[in-house]
Design goal:
Elements (H helix, E strand, L loop, with lengths): L1 H4 L1 H10 L10 H10 L7 H27 L2
Length: about 70
């Protein structure tokens, strides 16, 4: 499957797009803390940021799950 063959690229996406910008803290981390705090006053752009920065991690979880399920 294409996800399993490209797991290194997905990992690279997680480390770059998923965590950018890196300072003062990764963007996805700040958004997740905001959501855990109740997501008050989050607008559509903020939810798009969560999707954009979180999608590489979702792909990585899916790829690893398929890899473990197939025993590869």
């Amino acid at each position: 499957m294409i996800l399993i063959k490209n797991i290194r690229i997905i990992l690279l996406l997680c480390l770059t797009l998923g965590l950018a910008p890196f300072f003062p803290e990764p963007h996805i981390w700040g958004k997740l803390k905001w959501i855990c705090g109740g997501a008050k006053e989050m607008q559509l752009m903020d939810w798009f940021d969560v999707f954009l920065h979180g999608s590489p991690f979702i792909l990585l979880i899916i790829a690893l799950t398929i890899k473990l399920k197939n025993g590869i």
